[in-house]
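FAQ: What does the model actually see?

It sees only this:
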Amino acid sequence: MAPLSSLSFGLFEKPPEIMQNRRYAFICGLHRSGTTLIARTLARHPMVSGFRDTGTIEDEGQFLQSVLPLETAFGGVGRFGFDPRAHMTDESQWNTPECARKILAEWTRYWDTTKPVLLEKTPGNLLRMRLLAKLFDPAYFIVVTRHPVATALATMKWTEGNLFSLISHWVHCYRIARADGAFVSHVHWVSYEQFIADPDAELSCISGFLGLETFSDWNLRLRDENAAYFDLWRTCYLGDTERAIEQLPPERPRSLLTRLRERLTRDARERALPVHRKRENRRNFHDALDAVALHEPAISEFGYSFNDLSRKPRLT
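And it is asked to produce this:
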């Protein structure tokens, strides 16, 4: 397929050189992983043009084009990756010059095409790198991770998903992205934790990856928001690792007085329990236990751990 720079003249009625030597940068990562923070920060660089003030959710590129399906078509936040159709490769039906022209035409309305790096951010990019690499040449992918505990608990505000499902979705999507990364030329991984801890160093690495000149006037004021989610995790989700599940006795005939005594005893015992073991929260507690038991090896592949929440992975 010809590079998009050679396709753009008739479409935009601009001189061919206006789109030559442009690099397309795609921010990839699940919802609430830090993609918006990194995208908006990079867009401050004088050589980068991103989307802003578009009137769409988080200025995401998925809402500014009419070719590729929205994430909601595949289940939306916290679920889209489970739908096989959300994983788009070079074999996708959308891998055509016509699709490339139309998407570029729609996005170019919001980009300053005099800048050498054109930036777009959509969470679903995580599963579309192989397709986007064919549609846009050259394409650079910045994959953002964040601890699955923080990502899942932050995402629960936006979805009906449960903790176990959200952490499983995290593992599923990032494993696909890691495999897809072997098929594209330019991929850079960055963790939210390392970005917050040393943003200047991470931005320097990303700038070098994108071939940008040195820039230091980022004017950042960052705060690590993981701590609040980790406290919530310890309080309401995984206060201990005892896996025993209460076995409910079979129903038996009892007098009203006996049932009342049993109810009062049960309520007194319930009040003495820690938050994570209270009846209304027990489902969350067991979801957390199961997620840790099943997914600890998987998240350790990405430098994370349920047992050491403070770990800040450095990814490449």
